[in-house]
Amino acid sequence: MKRTLMGCIVGAALAFGGSVGAQDNMMPFGTDTEVNYAAQLWTAMESINMVGDGMLRTFPYEGIAPHGMMLETFYTKATVGGHTGTLLVKRNYGPEGVTEDEVLKEPGKHLGAITVMFKREAGYDADNQDWFWAKYLPDGSLDKNPKGMQLAGRVAKGKPKGCIACHSGAPGGDYIFTTDHLK
């Protein structure tokens, strides 16, 4: 009886995007562990001027859904928890119809989200080249999917749609679309 009740509690927690201690390892994203790591990553991005006041800027370019109508993309390195990895930061601007000039003039007004890929330590997610995914709102809080799960970690791993499913189709097999013209 206790096993059945515990199984139902764990199952319900997982179905609603919650976490139950050791269950963090079974859920691909949105766990307390992944959310805490995303907070550390945001702090690392602040320290290298990727987000917040005084952030580095570049000329935006035309984007596509789901990221935004205008984008800025940066490639750098960051250190989180003693691990240094490749960091891709994409600033997603909108709404539809926004122009490069409007984004340059008032970036904060048009910033909708900041999407991030961070290359974690070997073994984090070997199936997907150890990429950690996060989607932040402009204030640094994590965005959520329609089920209320915070978008941090192995976002939508094993699903037909989402970060991993889309980026696994990038030419060159590196999960990165924006560098394909450099190859």
Q: Can you give a write-up of this model?
A:
- By secondary structure, the protein is α+β, with helices and mostly antiparallel strands.
- The protein has helices spanning 2-15, 32-47, 100-105, 107-110, 163-167; strands at 61-62, 70-80, 83-93, 111-119, 131-136, 152-153.
- It has one domain.
- It is built from five helices and six strands; from the N terminus they run ααβββααβββα.
- The protein has a six-stranded antiparallel β-sheet with strand order 1-2-3-4-5-6.
- It is globular and about 40 Å long.
Question: How much strand?
Answer: 15-25%
Broad shape: globular
Count of helical segments? 5
N-to-C SSE series?
HHEEEHHEEEH
Low-confidence stretches: 1-25
Main sheet attributes: strand count, strand direction, barrel closure: 6 strands, antiparallel
Spatial strand arrangement across the major sheet = 1-2-3-4-5-6
Q: Tell me the domain tally.
A: 1
How much helix, percentage-wise, in residues?
Answer: 10-25%
Look at the helices and sheets and give the structural class: alpha+beta
Instruction: Kindly report the oligomeric state of this protein.
Output: single chain
Q: What distance lies between the first and last C-alpha atoms, to the nearest angstrom?
A: 59 Å
Gyration radius (Cα, Å) is 17 Å
Q: How many E strands?
A: 6
Overall pLDDT, averaged? 83
